[in-house]
């Protein structure tokens, strides 16, 4: 172990959040170091290199807004940029702001302990130089909501002799599936994006689907240059608008009720949004997220589309979502997904009806049959929102561990800060809009808020900040109450931890919307950080 080095702030993670956090704190004259597990920056876009990986928020909005020159200089090529372009963008950001000199790659943070006496965090990491300790006044977790990929614990996993991949930890050199018998397990966004691409290469592709999801075509293509020039000319206003909508996108939800609209108007609006592409279909009426009856109209619309696209009626039937309202799991945004099932080399296997029993040396056995596979792609998702945080042994005041504190589910004030863990901040932590929003808007809001808070502490001679337990309790209650007012709890989603056996079933993100949430955070700050004990 080294002699601990001291910095003002340790930042864990070098995705969008960690990069901006470092830039921001440096701008305030603080010293900071970023630790990143991967051997490159980019976070999500460093790890998720599977074929077809691209964002589901359009490029003009899925980008940093903090520097008007950056947004004017950078040129996106596609409406929904693919992973290599997003990774190039994040590398450009790292270079442009000279961030790399304070980023330690290939370095995993294993623990973070608050030293009450010294008023410092002691952060242990393991990297190229071995185990090290760093002390810091502030510890900022920019560890990502979707950064802990998960392979289910299938019986026989170790006996399988073919190739195994997870979409969230894809080989950098790429994978050639030509001539291979491939199985994809999982039909969330990652499966739905990768299946059409893998199908184009593989000799045969078996898709193992447990739950069908709603997917809407991206209608991706080169970025419309007229729109891009308009966006550039109005970027400041667009960014400002995005801060105050529910989603962090500069488009408010449709103002009208789907239920009250005459059927022909409703159909026209759905058609327009289907053609437009992307998940705005789920927001084109005001009541889709709160009324099951209203939601049924858009659900039925998508099911009809599946019937129209997929030629085999039995395959179409299996693909039709039935167990959750539209939007209660993130709507998938695809390119050619449903049409892929019209290919001769693609089979859909309903593993709800015939569950996967085990992996075998040659493939996989369901209750009905054994499938011989040269490669299995796990598109099985993440231990979302809490996985990366609880992967680190975080201990606050009196050695209390975050794992123990969150045993029954995460508890945090504003999704930013945890009672008993002074000067620890979580960017897009549980209890904030995070994954229900355009995450770049939410990340920037959190980074700005945390930096302002630190500046406030420093300028007032304060050294410690943590929420009072009552404020935290009230916020957690509010997060739950708002979720209960919507259709979200009706889905067995990863928002609720439902995808990880044994994970407490708690609705983690804040449904109240980006705009309302920002107003609350601003109000807390304006009231001298109401709900925090500052010492
Ligand atoms: P991340 O990008 O996840 O970065 C966190 C980093 O922390 C990771 O690199 C990880 O290695 C590192 N880390 C974690 N634990 C440790 C540790 N103990 N020690 C060291 N390093 C650690 N959101 C949208 O809004 N729109 C989209 O279109 C969209 N598309 C997505 C597509 C995919 C395939 C996935 C998986 C997610 C997508 N998301 C999207 C969500 C996406 O995660 C965010 O948009 C954003 O990239 C998150 O940035 P971040 O910096 O918060 O976290
Ligand atoms: P996911 O949404 O959690 O989907 C995982 C899939 O694996 C589900 O279909 C799930 O089925 C299945 N699965 C899990 N365990 C299984 C098991 N034991 N047996 C059979 N099937 C199993 O994960 P994801 O697709 O990686 O997406 C996660 C999130 O990342 C998205 O919601 C989105 O926010 C983000 N993302 C965005 C994009 C984009 O378009 N930009 C792309 C990828 C990811 P069940 O539903 O039955 O559990």
Secondary-structure-based class equals: alpha/beta
- The low-confidence runs, each spanning 5 or more residues with pLDDT under 50, are none
> CATH top level of the largest domain?
Alpha Beta
Rg from Cα: 23 Å
The whole-number mean of residue pLDDT values reads 97
Number of strands: 20
End-to-end Cα distance, whole Å, is 32 Å
The CATH architecture classification of the largest domain is: 3-Layer(bba) Sandwich
By CATH, the topology of the largest domain is FAD/NAD(P)-binding domain
Helix content: 25-40%
Structural overview:
With 535 residues, the chain is an alpha/beta fold. The chain folds into 2 domains: 5-148 and 384-534, FAD/NAD(P)-binding domain (3-Layer(bba) Sandwich), CATH 3.50.50.60; 150-214 and 327-380, 3-Layer(bba) Sandwich (FAD/NAD(P)-binding domain), CATH 3.50.50. The protein has 16 helices and 20 strands. It has helices at residues 16-27, 44-47, 68-73, 83-96, 189-201, 225-233, 235-243, 263-276, 292-309, 313-319, 337-340, 387-390, 402-405, 439-459, 469-484, 514-526, and strands at residues 5-12, 32-35, 103-104, 108-115, 120-127, 130-141, 163-166, 181-185, 204-209, 215-217, 332-334, 346-350, 356-360, 363-366, 370-372, 375-378, 393-395, 424-426, 465-467, 532-534. Strands 1, 2, 3, 4, 5, 6, 17 and 18 form an 8-stranded mixed sheet that branches. A 5-stranded parallel sheet has the order 7-16-8-9-12, with helices on one face. The chain has a 3-stranded antiparallel sheet with strand order 13-14-15, with no helix packed on it. A hairpin with a 2-residue loop joins β13 (356-360) and β14 (363-366). α1 (16-27) runs parallel beside α14. The chain is globular, with a radius of gyration of 23 Å. The two termini are 32 Å apart. The model has no long low-confidence stretch (mean pLDDT 97). The chain binds flavin-adenine dinucleotide and NADP nicotinamide-adenine-dinucleotide phosphate. NADP nicotinamide-adenine-dinucleotide phosphate (NAP) binds next to α5.
């Amino acid at each position: 172990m080294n002699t601990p080095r001291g910095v003002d702030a340790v930042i864990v993670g070098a995705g969008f959040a960690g990069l901006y956090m470092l830039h921001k704190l440096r701008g305030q004259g603080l010293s900071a170091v970023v630790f990143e597990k991967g051997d490159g920056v980019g976070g999500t876009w460093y790890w998720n290199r599977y074929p077809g990986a691209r964002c589901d928020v359009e490029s003009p909005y899925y980008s940093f807004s903090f520097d008007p020159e950056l947004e004017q200089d950078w040129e996106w090529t596609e409406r929904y940029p693919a992973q290599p372009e997003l990774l190039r963008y994040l590398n450009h950001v790292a270079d442009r702001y000279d961030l790399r000199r304070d980023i330690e790659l290939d370095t995993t943070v294993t623990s973070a302990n608050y030293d009450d006496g010294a008023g410092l965090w002691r952060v242990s990491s393991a990297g190229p130089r071995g185990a090290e300790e760093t002390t810091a006044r502030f510890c900022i977790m920019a560890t990502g909501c979707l950064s802990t990929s998960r392979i289910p614990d299938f019986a026989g996993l170790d006996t399988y002799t073919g190739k195994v991949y997870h979409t969230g930890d894809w080989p950098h050199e790429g994978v050639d599936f030509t001539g291979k018998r491939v199985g994809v397990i999982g039909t969330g966004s990652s499966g739905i994006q990768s299946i059409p691409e893998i199908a184009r290469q593989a000799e045969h592709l078996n898709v193992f689907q447990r739950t069908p999801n709603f997917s809407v075509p991206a209608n991706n293509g080169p970025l419309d240059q007229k729109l891009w020039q308009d966006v550039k000319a109005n970027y400041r206003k667009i960014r400002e608008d995005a801060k105050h909508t529910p989603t962090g996108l500069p488009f408010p939800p449709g103002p009208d009720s789907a239920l009250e609209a005459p059927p022909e108007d409703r159909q026209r609006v759905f058609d327009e949004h289907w053609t437009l592409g992307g998940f705005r279909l789920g927001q084109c009426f005001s009541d889709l997220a709160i009324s099951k009856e209203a939601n049924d109209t858009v659900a039925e619309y998508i099911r009809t589309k599946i019937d129209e696209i997929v030629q085999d009626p039995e395959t179409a039937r299996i693909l039709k979502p039935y167990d959750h309202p539209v939007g209660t799991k993130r709507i998938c945004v695809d390119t050619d997904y449903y049409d892929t099932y019209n290919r001769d080399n693609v089979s859909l296997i309903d593993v709800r009806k015939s569950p996967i029993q085990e992996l075998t040396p040659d493939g996989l056995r369901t209750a009905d049959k054994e499938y011989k596979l040269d490669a299995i792609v796990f598109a099985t998702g993440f231990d979302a929102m809490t996985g990366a945080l609880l992967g680190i042994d975080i201990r606050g005041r009196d050695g209390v561990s975050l794992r123990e504190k969150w045993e029954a589910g995460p508890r945090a004030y504003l999704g930013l800060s945890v009672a008993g863990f002074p000067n620890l901040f979580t960017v897009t932590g549980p209890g904030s809009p995070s994954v229900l929003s355009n995450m770049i808007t939410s990340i920037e809001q959190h980074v700005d808020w945390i930096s302002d808070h630190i500046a406030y502490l420093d300028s007032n001679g304060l050294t410690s900040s943590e929420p009072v337990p009552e404020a935290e309790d009230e916020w957690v209650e509010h997060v739950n109450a708002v979720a209960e007012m919507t259709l979200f709890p009706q889905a067995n989603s990863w928002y609720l931890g439902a995808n990880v056996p044994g994970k407490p079933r708690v609705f983690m993100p804040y449904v109240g919307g980006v705009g309302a949430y920002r107003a609350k955070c601003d109000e807390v700050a304006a009231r001298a950080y109401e709900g925090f004990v500052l010492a």
